[in-house]
Amino acid sequence: MIELVEVSARDGLQNEKTILSTADKVELIQRAIAAGAKRLEVASFVNPKLVPQMADAEAVIEALGKTDGVRTIGLVLNERGAVRALQTTVDELGIVVAASNTFGKANQGMDIAESVAMAGRVIDLAREQGRDAQVTISVAFGCPLSGPVDPDLVVDMARQLAAFNPLEIALADTIGVARPDEVTALVTRVVEAVKPLPVRVHFHDTRGTGVANAVAAVAAGAVTVDASIGGTGGCPFAPGAAGNVASEDVAYALGDTMAVNIGTLCEAAVWLNEKLDRTRTSAMTRAWLSAREKR
């Protein structure tokens, strides 16, 4: 089976103009769980002045509580964020390192070497606290500030990060520039470089290739896909990045290999659109709405 990591409550909301209440964020997460999501990115522990949409991270996790069989993830960009996250009951830390010195300096104040070293320290810190930690290599297919990213660099970073023994290694197309053939090539190499660690992928649908990229990544050996209900999202530190690939679109494309209820995801997408006062949504939700109207 291919695992879904539902990221709507974090990456889906962090670039939206409308800031949802803590209660609405919790309801979004609960709707995703009702659809079958077992692993969810629920908050990020970043500077609230830079990302005000995530200012209530601790409150969301406290209000959410624990659900049997469900694991929550808190995104962290540095050790300060990790310390905050570990003071909550979040199950996993999701560490981010950038495959671009320019982007890393602008986003996290660290170059590649510094961010890889930071990831190792945070993984150790989480382990000491009895928590899991995983690492995402952001801008793995292209950087909004410096352009194309060398695949050899990404593979080398993945190998270095794997030596810290995180839960998994993820590749993120943060700005949505990847093509399926590029995804196939890079995921194949990273799977080989980090095995037996699993590989996760994260795509944005800026150029309409998000679902195709997810399918290509799974065929190349990725076992987990990040996606966001309704295709919401975008990166505040990556100008022009469109929404994440939609959970319901990915689930439809992957068929029986992803155990979620597509109708429930589409219903959640409609609810979320109303809360965010937006009209753009996923292809699957549009199809679901059309079929519902004909009944």
Explain this structure to me?
There is one protein chain. The protein is built from 11 helices and 8 strands. It has helices at 22-34, 57-64, 79-86, 101-108, 112-128, 151-162, 180-194, 210-219, 247-254, 262-276, 283-294; strands at residues 3-6, 39-45, 71-76, 92-98, 132-138, 169-173, 199-203, 224-227. An 8-stranded parallel beta barrel has the order 1-2-3-4-5-6-7-8, surrounded by 9 helices. Helix 1 (22-34) crosses helix 2 and helix 9 packs antiparallel against helix 10 (262-276). The two termini are 32 Å apart.
| Number of E strands | 8
Strand percentage = 15-25%
Distance between the amino and carboxyl termini? 32 Å
**Main β-sheet: number of strands, strand sense, barrel status?**
8 strands, parallel, barrel
- Class based on secondary structure composition and strand pairing: alpha/beta
Please tell me how large the radius of gyration is: 17 Å
Strand ordering within the main sheet? 1-2-3-4-5-6-7-8
Mean pLDDT rating? 96
Fraction of helical residues: 40-55%
Principal-axis shape equals: globular
Low-confidence stretches: none
Total helical segments: 11
* Helix and strand sequence: EHEHEHEHHEHEHEHEHHH
In brief, what are we looking at here?
This protein is α/β, with parallel strands linked by helices and 295 residues long.
